[in-house]
Amino acid sequence: MDQYFKLTESLNHRGSSTDKPPNQLIRQDAAVPKIEPVVLDTNSWNRAIEAQLPDLLSSWKAESPAKPPVVSARFKGRRIKTTSYYFSETGPAKRGNRSAIAANLFDPYAPEPSAEPVGEKSKADSKAKRVTTRTRMKAPADVIKLEDRLFYLLQPPLENLLDGKTMEFPFEPFPFQYAGIAFLFPRNSAILADEMGLGKTMQTIATVRMLLRAGFIKSVLIICPKPLVTNWQREFKSWAPEITVAAIKGNQHQRAWHWKTESAMVKLANYELLTRDEALVTAPENEYDLVILDEAQRIKNKANATSEVVHRINRKRSWALTGTPIENGVEDLVGICEFAAKGAVSSGMTAREMRVRVKDLILRRTKDLVMKDMPPRLMRDAELDLSPEQQISYDGAEKDGVLRLNDMGDELTIKHVFELVLRLKQICNFDPATGMSSKIERLKADMEEVAASGQKAIVFSQWVDSLEVIGKQLTVHRPLEYHGRIPSKQRDPILKEFKENPDRKVLLMSYGAGAVGLNLQFCRYVFLFDRWWNPAIEDQAINRAHRIGAAGSVTITRMIMAGTIEQRIHQILEEKRELFREILSDGDAPAKRGLSRNEIFGLFDLTTPKGKITPVNEVEDELGKAA
Amino acid sequence: MTQATNHPLQSFGFMTVVELPSLGHCGGLLVVSRIGRPIEFHCTAPVATNRAQQIMYGETYSGFLFSDQIGMALIDKAKNRPSVFITDCSEMLPLTELIDNPLVFAEPVDSETEFDGSGLEHFDLSGQSVYCVNHRGTEAAAISQGVHEFASRLPLDEPFERIRQAIEEAHSVLRAA
Description:
The complex is a heterodimer.
Chain A: E1 26-27, H1 42-58, E2 71-72, E3 82-86, H2 146-153, H3 158-161, H4 175-184, E4 189-192, H5 200-214, E5 220-224, H6 229-239, E6 245-247, H7 252-261, E7 266-270, H8 271-276, H9 278-281, E8 287-293, H10 305-312, E9 314-321, H11 330-340, H12 351-358, E10 362-363, H13 367-370, E11 377-384, H14 388-408, H15 414-429, H16 438-452, E12 457-461, H17 464-473, E13 480-482, H18 488-500, E14 506-510, H19 511-514, E15 525-528, H20 535-542, E16 554-561, H21 565-584, H22 597-602, H23 616-626
Parallel strand pairs in A: 4-9, 4-10, 5-7, 5-8, 6-7, 8-9, 11-16, 12-14, 12-15, 13-14, 15-16
Antiparallel strand pairs in A: 1-2
Helix pairs in contact in A: 4-5, 5-6, 14-15, 15-23
Chain B: E1 11-20, E2 24-33, E3 38-44, H1 51-57, H2 61-77, E4 84-87, E5 103-106, E6 121-125, E7 128-134, H3 140-153, H4 158-176
Parallel strand pairs in B: 1-4, 4-5
Antiparallel strand pairs in B: 1-2, 2-3, 5-7, 6-7
């Protein structure tokens, strides 16, 4: 109840049962006829103002011998309730959980330090400057305590916190990257699902650096595909040079030492060794303040061995990074959430339910949305005719293959169909008998143009054998190869050579080895010599070149042989690409992104048999292995 | 202005009042260090407009409500008394009679009413007019220097933005509770 007015207690009370009436009127002159006291709350005081007081005053007559009545109100402001919050340097961080480099990120009285050391990159943009955008950290929905929520909200904008005096970066993050940092920082569970090329690695490292500096965490485990381990090391050197990083590698004894005694703040491990080191990585004494999964789609199948190990790692915070949270269906997202926020979503939820549940958990931005000034991505489909030699081989293989499939009757499975698909796709690349290829002729012509304009190109294929044949045809451009048969140690030098040697005009990559995590934005041309099964993988390949820092427009040429299985698959891939957008946006019933059984059999106009059908995902894995 | 001193202000108390629809006026005080980091935050419960007070105080009502009641309630809670108080709310200026600290008025850039600051020392800060309402023993030059140094890191309207968001957050949490 409002009690703005505290009046004195000189009048008798009326109708109050309280010892200390909140409001009272004072009558100063006791000689005047007695006036009934008024005990007021705000409403009654208002009523008194409007009704009683005028009556009271009008009852006095000027000719009266007595002095006029005086009604006084002494206004003493009521005590207004306040809520207070006093900041400590550590905020929600627990004392005793401070990393070796924990300093004064949130210390209000921190002296203005000299710039922190950074790598050899340009420091041009790192000077403190007037804040032009204001990116605020905001507590996620699962932070309940008001003081914790206010801790984040009352911090200065990230642009100020990271103004180059507290922490120096090699270059100024984009506004959407600040927003990504603001998203990750307060979250125990997070999925950063930005489109490829928007800097998920950089945003993650900057946030890890802040958390370590704030003393919120002190141990981090990052799990990534093996080829990306060196990439993470390189990026840490650029974006967080003071943070110690150790890659877990070597033989069993060396790895055991790393897991048990390595004191680096950040440990880097690849997915492949998780299952081998299961006992070590999940040991109770190995608890991490933060576990980050890069390319988290690797655990979309929650039943596979890697997923099971990952789920059992002792951790306080779980972040998943992926450009393709949904590759084939909403089940992919369920698998990732099983790690990042167990129980947040489950199989069988509708798309609407799932969207609501993950709203506070996932941050996804696309280049279209955040990089208005990003150079354009020019897609061109090169529809080619098979060479006469290829045409003969193709027709024969298809005819024989279809006949064989039909003869299999009930024993026919999707796997058999895929074997034929792969066979035909290989013929679309090169005629097995003569080596003739319309694609290679077109590629050679295009490469002449690319080289003449001083540019470089990446050529992707599903098959290493195809890449090797392509390499022999493009010797004039001094091609480099980057695929699964190249030992890991040799891969970084190959990329360096490609980047720095102007004579190296073309890099031949397999989808498997080169699809993720690599920064090749100096390339203006990408050729998809054959098509991958999944459009998300193709997008990842394309985004090696079309990413932040791209020098100009990136031209992507997709080679498709007209009237063949490639053209039929191309059609389906385009439909899947549309479905991806549907699932992550407002559609009510997202369709499956994998090919349906009927679609697969429809490739060859076969009738669906009653036999066992292999699930699409497994078939896709088979295709990956075949590559 | 006289020459700047070598004693920059160490902390700043940003103070404003927000009107919450159907609830009333809510005051917020954010004490920040000279690098803009928060030290303390206080906000009041919403104070509903009172008809009786309006009648009694007439034109001085908002000054009484914003300064005597809300402003002083906030300041009384501050453990760290800031070197200078800064407000973007002209109705809080009567505080100058109640406190011993310097008080600065940062006129909002989008203010619809023109503030009559005649007789007050003032300076321009990136298009924003800033008035030293009182000095309380601190040289105006020192205040100007301190405010300028602060504004070189953060725009002067930024802490007020924090206060408004925090008040909104506090009340949304309390409403949900």
